[in-house]
Structure formats: structure tokens, C-alpha cells
# Entry
Amino acid sequence: MTMAEKILWEQLNKNQVKGYRFRAQHPIGKFIVDFYCHEATLVIELDGKIHENKIVSERDDGREEEIKKLGIRMLRFTNDDVFKNIHGVLFEISAFLNSVT
# Structure
């Protein structure tokens, strides 16, 4: 895990966000996603600076489309979001989870 993933995992682990269980580094089809919540059919991806690269960004978009075809929704955040505003990230995740219940 990257440092940003470790920080977010500390908050998601052990059903700490609205009682939902998340799994880290979870396989979905041919992909490994950063975090997955089966109950909410939600993937959370964290993107570092490399994801600003055009080729990597295009690959991410294709990957996201394939995952969405499986009926799974995705939230994306940057590593900087986690480092600078973890409470905002958790608020967005909580708001999303409120919308599925």
C-alpha cells in the first residue's frame, strides 16, 4: 500500500465508516482495486501523480468503464486529497454510502 492508502485504510478498516466493510487491494475481474465495499458495490481508488500522465489516465478511464459495466460504482480521490483533507474524503464517502441505504 502507498502511504495515502494506509492513511485511508486506517479510517475504512473495521467497519468504521457507517458500519460498511471495506476490503483493501481487492480483485475485481482482471483488476486489483484499492478498496472495495461489496455491500455498497463501491470501489474507492486513490491516484498519485503518475495518474496525471495522459497514457495512465486513459488506461484508468478504460479500467473504470470496465468496472462500471459490472454494476460497481467508483469514487476517485488523489493522494493529496487524503494527505490534506482526509475529513473531506471521508465526508464524500459517507455521503455516497448514505445514498445507497
